[in-house]
Amino acid sequence: MSLTAVVWGVTGVLFFFGLAIVTLRRQLLAMLLGLELMLAAVNVGLVHHAGLFHDAEALAVVALVIAVAAAEVVVGLSLILRVRRGGRGADAALLTELQG
User: Fold this and answer.
1) CA angle 93, 39, 16 (to 5 degrees)
2) What does 18-41 look like in DSSP terms, one character per residue?
3) Are 22 and 11 contacting, i.e. CB atoms less than 8 angstroms apart?
4) Rounded CA separation 34/22 (Å)
5) Residue 99's pLDDT band (cuts 50, 70, 90)
6) Contact between 55 and 45 (Cβ < 8 Å)
7) For residue range 2-49, what is the model confidence (pLDDT) as tens digits?
8) How far is Cα 24 from Cα 20, in angstroms, rounded to an integer?
C-alpha cells in the first residue's frame, strides 16, 4: 500500500469522525471540536499534496486554514461562554432563537 493511500485514508477517517461528531452530538463544544477535526483532516490532505507536487500555494492555503480555524475557535468559544453565562445550557437543541 502506498503512502498516498494511507494519507488519504487517514484524512477520510478524520473527516468522517469530525462530521459524525458535528451531526450526532448536540453539545456546542463537541460540535466545535468536530469542526476543528474536519479542518485538521483538510490540512493533512493539503500538506500531503504540497509535499507530492512541491506546491507552495497549497502550503499557503494550509496557513490560511489554520488562521481561519483559530478565529473560528475564538468566536465559537466566546459564543458558548456567552450562552452559558446567560443561564441556558450549551445544548444546540435549546438554542432556537436569538436573544439580545
Assistant:
1) 70
2) HHHHHHH--BHHHHHHHHHHHHHH
3) no
4) 5
5) low
6) no
7) 999 999 999 999 999 999 999 999 888 999 999 999 999 999 999 999
8) 6
Domains of the chain are 3-94 (1.10.287.3510)
All cell numbers assigned to 81? 461562554
Q: Residue with C-alpha cell 487517514?
A: 10
Tell me the one-letter amino acid at 7. V
pTM of the model: 0.85
Helix (H) or strand (E) holding 70: helix 56-85
Burial of 25 (0-12, 13-18, 19+ CB in 10 A): middle
Q: Does residue 82 contact residue 52 with C-beta atoms inside 8 Å?
A: no
